[in-house]
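PROTEIN–LIGAND DATA SHEET

This sheet pairs a single protein chain with one bound small molecule, zinc ion, given as SMILES. Inputs appear in the order they were entered. The predicted three-dimensional arrangement of chain and ligand is reported afterwards as a token string under its own label.
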Amino acid sequence: MPALASSARFLLKSLADFIFPPICYGCDSEIEAGLVCEACRLDLFTHELAVCPECGRPCTRTAETCGQCEEKFSLTRVRALGLYVPPFDKLVQAFKYSGKTKVGELLGQALAALVRQDEVLSAADAVCPVPLHPARMRERGFNQSLLLAAAISMSTGIPLVEFLVRKKNTPTQTLKTRPKDRRKNLERAFRIKPDAGVDGKTVLLVDDVMTTGATLDQAARELLKGGAASVLGVVIAAAHAGGRPSPS
Ligand SMILES: [Zn+2]
Ligand SMILES: [Zn+2]
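PREDICTION REPORTED AS:
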């Protein structure tokens, strides 16, 4: 009987694939199987973006600096898989807003690969997700950054530690938010947990998207205030890199 049930399931799946062929989550092209096409998989695992030599923000390999160096930034080094353009924006949206956890797992693997091949990031003492406010967590049902941080921790062996809590449910930061308002929105947004044990540690902060960097910056400030030796960062996508803001 179970064999019959499983062949029925297989037939149904084949029929569904015939009517609705699988579509790449990164670019909408038809694929044979899986989540993304070969081109998007390559994008995920080639790590096109480098780091700005002046300030540590993500930066294209051809640009001399990121173009935002003058704004204060508390992290030493931030890596991103790519710019917030296809396929990265589509993949983030599928994961974050449509709850496609399989896409999240793939993004987690790609981030883990990036951390493993970066000498500085892979030497961190702890991996820490940017926390969600409890109200936002209830709405979404999961913290995307925690899932990504867990994948990195599992793959690299760097311990996962949730040092921070979010005290303020800040509005989503967009490129249209003025820098001054962004900072104001985020003031005292994060608190370090009592007895977090961050003293002297190099912490790798994990978030999904770096829009302006203000969120990562505030979280890093709190960690440094708590005694962290330095703070690094890794994100799926960066909205800016080398003075070329993405269209969104
Ligand atoms: Zn694709
Ligand atoms: Zn810079």
